[in-house]
Structure formats: structure tokens, C-alpha cells
Amino acid sequence: MSRYSKTPVVSNEEDQYKDSEIFENRGVRKISHYPTPRLKQFTKEEYQSLKFVTHVWRSGDRFWRLSSKYYGQSKYWWVIARWNFAPTESHLEIGQEIRIPLDLQKVIGLIK
């Protein structure tokens, strides 16, 4: 079963897009897509309450690889990204220290 099976699909057919080349370039009248998830903001206290390991960002590092290493599955890459306020790997620099929270279920509960 797809992880998107319970996710609603929305369509961009608002007026703000009508004069845009987006639809014209794609040869469509509307674009259907999954909505951007809304994640909760966690407090400073919550951020500091979790045990974590530090990782020094190196060339070739990827969130999905770290997720696989620490959580046993690559699909939790977004937890590491969110916990470090870095939406993508390009938001990090070589040598930068990041935190990898160890209690996966607790951190997911704080974010979702």
C-alpha cells in the first residue's frame, strides 16, 4: 500500500495561476498534487529534552543515509532534517555539527 493512500489530493486552479505559463507549458488546465504537510513547531525545552548524538557533516553525507544508520530505515530522513532546521542537505556545510535525536517515536510525536 502506498504511503499516500490516505493523503488528500489538491488542485491548483486558482486565479493566481491562470495568467501563469505553468499550465500552458504543461498543456493542462489544472495541476493536482499532494499538499505540503504542516509540522508543529517544537519548543526550546522540547528540543533540549531529547538525547541525541552529534554528527559532523562530511562530503557525501545524506539525511537518508543517516536515517538508515541510526533508525534502521531511510524513510525518517525528514526527522533529522527538521530537527536541524535544514530542509535539504544543501542547507548544511562541511564540518557543521548536527544533532540526531535518538528517541525516534518521541521526536515524531513532537513534530507531527
Task: Describe this structure in a few short sentences.
This protein is of the alpha+beta class.
Please explain how this structure is put together.
With 112 residues, the protein is an alpha+beta fold. It has two domains: 1-36, no CATH class; 44-111, no CATH class. Helix content is 36%, strand content 14%. It has six helices and four strands. It has helices spanning 15-18, 21-26, 44-49, 63-71, 77-83, 104-111; strands at residues 10-12, 31-33, 52-56, 97-101. Strands 1-2 form a two-stranded antiparallel ribbon. Strands 3-4 form a two-stranded antiparallel ribbon. Helix 4 packs across helix 5 (77-83). The model has no long low-confidence stretch (mean pLDDT 89).
Short key terms for the protein model shown above:
single chain, alpha+beta, two-stranded antiparallel sheet, 4 strands, 14% strand
| Percentage of residues assigned to helices | 25-40%
Low-confidence stretches: none
Cα end-to-end separation: 21 Å
Number of strands: 4
**SS strand fraction:** 5-15%
What does the oligomeric state look like here?
single chain
Structural class, please?
alpha+beta
Spatial order of strands in the largest sheet:
1-2
Instruction: Output the helix-strand order.
Output: EHHEHEHHEH
**Count of separate structural domains:** 2
The main sheet comes to:
2 strands, antiparallel
Q: What value does the Rg take, in angstroms?
A: 18 Å
Principal-axis shape: elongated
Overall mean pLDDT stands at 89
Topology, element by element:
Elements: E1 10-12, H1 15-18, H2 21-26, E2 31-33, H3 44-49, E3 52-56, H4 63-71, H5 77-83, E4 97-101, H6 104-111
Antiparallel strand pairs: 1-2, 3-4
Helix pairs in contact: 4-5
